[in-house]
Design goal:
Layout: E1 4-11, H1 17-30, E2 36-43, E3 49-51, H2 64-69, E4 72-77, E5 84-88, E6 101-104, E7 106-109, H3 120-128, H4 137-144, H5 148-155, E8 163-167, H6 168-171, H7 175-185, E9 190-194, E10 204-206, H8 209-220, E11 225-230, E12 235-244, E13 249-257, H9 266-271, E14 298-299, H10 306-322, E15 327-336, E16 342-348, H11 356-359, H12 366-385, H13 398-405
Parallel strand pairs: 1-2, 1-7
Antiparallel strand pairs: 2-3, 3-4, 4-5, 5-6, 8-11, 9-10, 9-11, 12-13, 12-15, 13-14, 15-16
Bound molecules: adenosine-5'-diphosphate and magnesium ion.
Amino acid sequence: MSVKTVGVVFGGLSPEHEVSVITSLQAAAAMDRAKYHPVPVYIAKDGVWYTGEGLLDIEGYSDLNSLVAAAARIEVLPGGSGRLRVGEVKRGALFSSGRREWTFDVMFLGLHGGAGENGGMQGFCELMGVPYTGSGILGSALAMDKIRSKDFCGRKGIPVVESMQIREQTWAGDEERWLDRICSWASFPLIVKPVGLGSSIGIRRTEDRDQLDGAIEEAFRYDPAILVERVVSPLREINAAVLGDEDHARASVLEEPISGIEMLSFQDKYIRGGEGSKGVTPASKDPGSAGGMASQNRLIPAPLTEDQTEYIQKLAVRIFQILGCAGVARIDFLMNADTGDVFFNEINTIPGSLSFYLWEPADLAFQDLVHELIEIALRRYHDTADRVRSYDVNLLEEHSARGLKA
Ligand SMILES: Nc1ncnc2c1ncn2[C@@H]1O[C@H](COP(=O)(O)OP(=O)(O)O)[C@@H](O)[C@H]1O
Ligand SMILES: [Mg+2]
């Protein structure tokens, strides 16, 4: 087997930019060099793409200006046919003669949040005709939508927490009626969340009508659609990773994040250190690289009975397949600590650290996880690319066109 050139894509326009850097550098470091040659594709916060060896070193990210100044700015070139070509953008040069080029056999997507995880980047790869890791457009888009993902799963019998959707256009000018409706639908406490965000951004727990009003206004700063949800209390959170595709998928061991706080803020998760929705974990090869984000508080495996564990693993695999996911995803559940009732909360199609720490205890090393993700990407690509997608007949040839006109 020849060595495949892997474009590792990370950064991006998302609050989870830094977390994405960590996840992706970990994945690049874990790639078996006998099979893969990882090339960084760093999307800076202004959307400009860069490559260069220096981008694989976490130390450089403490000074972003120097980092990109030393890197090569790149742009996508046409005509990759099954691969993605990029070329250096020479600063100030009118002609691009002698510029460096890279051709990727597969794109390894390590973006978190925003268009990197919601189907946008996946759509770009489809359009360019290059294989990419993780879920496709539909799975990514459904998973990112906190209402539709639960709605789809709820209809298939997956237990979900009841919630109410509000769109800003219908809220504006009708606030009191909405508040009446919500208050007659459920009792406090209630949780308010933006539909498409992660990392606890814009999420608030509310105890009364006033707080609810404020939390809804706050959530609309981030998203034109929000949800108001019943609270699970007392709460235990249980997460499972799933690996595979729509036909074959398996679940990892379970984790239980422990915080001691009812709800973690973005700061708690990433800056002060602690478990996050994207919780990155230092890879064994690269200890301490993640600074505050590295310190984790989680129990692996989650202390549950065998039956509970198996039940949650089965739910996780079903959710993954209902939503049409691929690659690795992490599915987060809310459990009522008193009753043991379990509810599907959300799914991350590009989880922090790709959840490698949930596969290692199941005897799948990070290197093998990365390999399997690339294999799935190539298999999925060929599954569609190798089918008939166009006909040699030109329906608009002169005589046919005349026929159509008539
Ligand atoms: N219905 C709920 N009941 C109790 N706690 C909740 C509920 N929904 C969310 N939370 C708490 O808020 C956190 C963030 O919510 P989540 O839906 O996971 O959003 P994010 O995508 O930002 O991680 C959860 O990890 C959990 O601690
Ligand atoms: Mg979460």
